[in-house]
Structure formats: C-alpha cells, structure tokens
Design brief:
The protein is of the alpha+beta class and 195 residues long. Helix content is 35%, strand content 18%. It has one domain: Class II aldolase/adducin N-terminal domain (L-fuculose-1-phosphate Aldolase), CATH 3.40.225. The chain has a seven-stranded mixed β-sheet with strand order 3-2-1-4-7-6-5, with helices on both faces. α3 crosses α5. The protein starts with a helix and ends in a 6-residue tail after the last helix. The protein binds zinc ion (ZN). The site of zinc ion has 5 residues, from loops.
Length: 195
Amino acid sequence: MKKNIAEIINISNEIYDKGLVSGKSGNISARFKGENGDLIAITPTLKSLSQLNEKDIVLVDLDGNILTKGKPSSEVNMHLEIYKKRPDVYGIVHTHSPYATGFAHSSKRIKRHEGFGEIKTPFIAEIEYEKPGSNELAINASEGLCNEDVLILKKHGVICVGKNLKEAELLAVFVEETAKTQFVTYMLNSVEDII
Ligand SMILES: [Zn+2]
C-alpha cells in the first residue's frame, strides 16, 4: 500500500510538472488489493497535485466508504464507477490539460494518431457535458470507457485509464501531445506562406 501511495504522489508531481494539471485541478487514483477486496487510493479534494504528502492520499473501498482521514477528490464516484466496470484497470488519470481541453470546449474532435494501438475509429471518443462531480458524469464516463482507454469529457477535460497508473499517465501525456500537434497543424494550415 505504501508503494501505491508513493507512486500516486510521484505521478501527481510528474503530471503537474508536465503542465497537464494546474492549480488544484485534476485527480488520479490507483487500485490495489486489500485484505477484504479491492481498495482505491485517490488524491484529495482542494489540494494541488504538486503539494501532496502521504497523509493526503485518501483510501476508499469500491462502495465509496472512506477508510482514512481526509476528503477524496470530488470525482471519486467517477473513478469508482470506472474501476467497477473495468476490472483490468488499475490506474486512472483525470486532467484538464490545456490543448486536449481546448478541443473539449470546441466543436473539433481529436484525431487518433499512431500510438493508441489499433486505430478502430478516426477520433478519440467523447461524451457530452455533465456537471463535474455528478452521478451522471460518473455513469456516462464509466460507460464511455468500457471499450476505450481515453475519453474526452466535453467542456471539461480528459480521462485516461491503464493497467497501472504509469500507463494511464503515459496515455494522458500522449493525448495532450496529439491535441497539441493537431492544433499546430490547424494553425499552420490557416496562414499563408511567408516568402
Ligand atoms: Zn475535472
């Protein structure tokens, strides 16, 4: 368990340093095996992911019972619903990374690039806006991730899942870079060549 908590703090710092989360936004979690079933370690509410200590990480069970001190992220239900529907998922990263979230606020969609594995559909999956922290968002996001490892939450942000937290982080970085590349391509195509 200590290892899981240390990894959450480490990856929280990494995604903050990479600019995927800013201020007190974003939340991440990891699943691990407890004595009486799976447990989820999740980042707390209202705290920057750059300033976490071991005692800030909150443990919950899959039913949402809080097992330690502190208050979990307001998106804890979204994380729990995803873990329930995806037994293969052991790490979740939710960010408002600027380029991908820019697309989420626009009518444009992010194309899938090489690196997502087999390209089954031309665009990254997305779901319509639901209020952050709401049950509707938890249900729709978890359903949207049944057959996907990354999902755009319209007018909100990005959520990535993986067989471990590191995989989810790598995907979150990749999605942001993909969105950035597409944005730069749009910009370059929109201006005349200067000779
Ligand atoms: Zn969010």
